[in-house]
TrEMBL record:
Coiled coil location: none
All residue ranges annotated as the MobA-like NTP transferase domain in the record: 3-125
Organism (species): Paenibacillus sp. BIHB 4019
Name recorded for this polypeptide: MobA-like NTP transferase domain-containing protein
Keywords linked to the UniProt accession: Nucleotidyltransferase, Transferase
CDD domains associated with the record: PC_cytidylyltransferase
Gene Ontology MF, one: nucleotidyltransferase activity
């Protein structure tokens, strides 16, 4: 199993924190976000790691890592960065991670233990609501729909919910993709308008795959998971999560 970290974006909503550093190198309680992710993968015994770079690419230097470059990072989204790592995705299963999130090796181990016959696997956080209530005056203003079928497959993802009943959890920015799963993704992308693909994030990708009948296996997880989008997130986590990070 290999890991691919998507680290091309600037993260302009973090303001001065990303003037001279890519978002993934933002400091949280004395440690950079990307270093926390690398630590989680290494604790789960995953040593082969690729990083998709873009904004201030030279600032991301990790010993032993393989680099892919998203040179169009200013006008593209997360899916375009993922496609930059197609060479790895075609060859063997990979765990893909956003780099503006915080988690532990527990969730990586959970993904490693998923059925090998499931070609696209995502963990979802079942304890998302207290975090969203702390981050937003109205948690539904930023949450996305997430509903499951009876077979632990994702039925709906990425919409705008109007009730909490539409949100059974939140996509965590982590997924495991097999080579077969990547072929299904490529087939889906081949029939999409290129300009749409450039703007598409991974949640929109998953929603599109589901519409085409592709099975997305979902695994519940209630451990540590934080998302960093705003300076207020950093302040919140420093105040509330210091003893857990």
């Amino acid at each position: 199993m290999k890991a691919i970290l998507l680290a091309a974006g600037r993260g302009s909503r973090l303001g001065s924190h990303t003037l001279h550093e890519p978002k993934c190198r933002t400091m949280l309680l004395g440690k950079r976000l990307i270093d926390r992710q690398l630590e989680a993968f290494r604790e789960a015994s995953i040593r082969d790691i690729a990083i998709v770079r873009g904004y201030m690419a030279g600032r991301i230097q990790v010993a032993g890592a393989t680099y892919f470059e998203n040179r169009a990072w200013e006008r593209t989204n997360m899916l375009a960065s993922l496609c930059c790592a197609s060479d790895w995705l075609e060859r063997e299963p990979c765990i893909v991670s956003y780099t503006d999130i915080v988690y532990t090796s527990d969730v990586i181990e959970l993904m490693l233990g998923a059925d090998e016959d499931d070609d696209i696997v995502i963990p979802y956080n079942t304890n998302w609501l207290p975090l969203w209530e702390a981050r937003f005056p109205n948690p539904l203003s930023d949450a996305e729909t997430f509903r499951l079928g009876s077979d632990s497959r994702v039925f709906e993802i990425g919409g705008r919910p109007t009730t909490l009943q539409e949100v059974e959890g939140q996509f965590m920015g982590l997924l495991r993709i097999s080579p077969k799963g990547w072929r299904m993704i490529q087939q889906f992308l081949s029939i999409q308008d290129q300009s749409l693909v450039e703007r598409m994030d991974l949640t929109a990708l998953l929603a599109g795959l589901i519409e085409q009948g592709v099975a997305i296996k979902a695994i519940p997880y209630n451990g540590l998971w934080l998302e960093v989008d705003h300076e207020s997130d950093l302040l919140l986590y420093e105040n509330e999560y210091g003893d857990r990070l």
